[in-house]
Design a protein that fits this description.
Number of helices: 1
Structural class: mainly beta
Number of strands: 27
CATH architecture of the largest domain: Sandwich
Oligomer: single chain
Strand order of the largest sheet: 1-21-18-23-16-13-12
Mean pLDDT: 94
Distance between the termini: 49 Å
Radius of gyration: 20 Å
Low-confidence stretches: none
CATH topology of the largest domain: Jelly Rolls
CATH superfamily of the largest domain: Jelly Rolls
Largest sheet: 7 strands, antiparallel
Helix content: under 10%
Shape: globular
Length: 333
């Protein structure tokens, strides 16, 4: 194995375990069929068109009302739509190419529903969600919710010596001189010195790209999720492999014969103990016990919605509502 590759692991399940400050990332792909009038699947899954209903009892796929505390969820929707509602009164609909960044801080309830908007064609769905840790201080702060619309996320286009291109979506940090949109204030990713770089990369067939070195103390990962093969530093990596890489060297990528897609993650570790129990991530078992007791008493605020699994009307365009500020935001707004 090349000395710049620490390890390579096949992604058999949808969850990929990572290292500080990243906890794990989940990669969901579902082949949802045509939707009915209630935005539910009209047919059950089949062997060649599998899908999961997740935990919804309403018939609309998704994750109804549930709590989080002590970390952040960074959700990328590559295809399909998500309806978000939370206990702060925030809500919104986001879709293909949008990113939602939710800092759960000292506690929040939210739901993520996947309405099937198309009644005349299938509703393919692909979503990544990174669980990103918070520092001990950030775990005590109030929750925060931010949308990053696809129209606003910066891209960098790199052309290799053969005229082939790579498109780099800069979700966090910076790629060369291109800075990402601002992250929530109480996020480990907010401070530039933490070097939290999150890129979604698309490579033309046979395209080459070099990712610049970061700090020697960072943790660095590449998840190759689309395309037959990818060469990293001359070593062939198969489809759906997670690779940990040396952080303080430039890394050369060469794509295979089809379009390749990669999630690239790197950042300085927080360096604090991690105590994780279900949807809570704190620094000790004692803190977890206190958090669960507090949740049983308060539910992290009263749920302001009529249903634990609400959805918007089919014709609702993409938007975000920041209830505390009585502010509506649209992608071009």
């Amino acid at each position: 194995m090349n000395s710049n590759i620490i390890y390579s692991m096949q992604a058999i399940e949808f969850r990929l375990d990572l290292k500080d400050p990243f906890l794990f990332t989940a990669h969901h792909i579902d082949h949802f069929p045509v939707g009915n009038a209630q935005m539910q699947p009209v047919t059950p899954p089949t062997e060649d068109k599998p899908y999961r209903m997740y935990y919804s009892e309403t018939g609309v796929p998704g994750f109804p009302e549930h709590p989080h505390t002590g970390f952040e969820t960074i959700t990328f929707v590559e295809s399909g739509f998500v309806d978000h509602f939370d206990s702060l009164g925030n809500s919104g609909r986001y879709g293909a190419g949008d990113v939602q960044w939710l800092s759960t801080g000292n506690g929040i309830e939210h739901c993520e529903m996947f309405p099937l908007l198309h009644t005349d064609k299938e509703n393919p769905f692909e979503l990544f969600q990174i669980w990103f840790n918070s520092s001990p201080q950030e775990k005590t702060e109030d929750p925060a919710y931010k949308m990053m619309w696809r129209e606003h996320i910066p891209h960098v286009t790199e052309t290799d010596p053969h005229g082939l291109t790579a498109d780099i979506r800069v979700i966090s940090g910076s790629f060369k001189s291109q800075e990402a949109l601002e992250r929530p204030q109480n996020s480990w990713a907010h401070a530039k010195e933490n070097k939290v770089n999150i890129f979604m990369i698309q490579l033309d067939p046979h395209a080459e790209l070099t990712i610049p070195a970061t700090t020697a103390t960072s943790n660095r990962f590449c998840y190759f999720y689309n395309g037959p093969t990818l060469q990293i530093e001359g070593e062939t990596i198969p489809f759906k492999h997670l690779v940990e890489l040396k952080p303080d060297v430039d890394i050369h990528l060469k794509n295979g014969a089809e379009i390749g897609r990669i999630m690239w993650l790197e950042g300085e570790p927080i360096g604090a103990p991690v105590a994780m129990r279900g949807p809570f991530v704190l620094n000790s078992d004692d803190e977890l016990n206190h958090a669960f007791a507090r949740y049983r008493q308060t539910h992290f605020g009263q749920w302001p919605w009529e249903s634990p699994a609400p959805v918007f009307n089919r014709d609702q365009p993409r938007f975000a509502s920041y209830n505390k500020d009585e502010q509506l935001e649209y992608p071009e707004g």
